[in-house]
Amino acid sequence: MSDQTNTGPVVAADGRPLKQSLQRALRRQKLRALALIAPLLIFILVAFIAPIGDMLFRSIENEIVSETLPHTVVALKDWNYESGEMPDEAVFAALAQDLLVAVKSKTHTKLGS
Q: What is the pTM assigned to this prediction?
């Protein structure tokens, strides 16, 4: 009675090594899972991450106010906000003038964005 042990690589039913077949099957499963969650990831990026990034960028670099209210910005440069006093009437007059111009040119909605 002879006991023969097969020391060669374990093969699958199609003749390929079992390790290679297992890696191939796992790769297919991972790709299928990624394909199923890809629409959700794209939605999250477009609906949440992009607007948050846009707001963060605009909080640092915001030229909308200086472009829409140029006279008000110039009038506010002379005001000392640390004094606790209200700005002069000239600032409010400049604000009113800038807002009228912005409403006529339909750029006033940019101030709220």
A: 0.50
For residues 65 and 73, is the Cβ–Cβ distance under 8 A? yes
Domain ranges (residues) in the chain = 11-61, 62-113
> Are 73 and 66 in contact, with CB atoms under 8 Å apart?
yes
CA 71 vs. chain centroid, Å, equals 33
Q: Which class for 98: exposed (0-12), middle (13-18), buried (19 or more C-beta within 10 A)?
A: buried
Per-residue model confidence as pLDDT tens digits over 32-44: 999 999 999 999 9
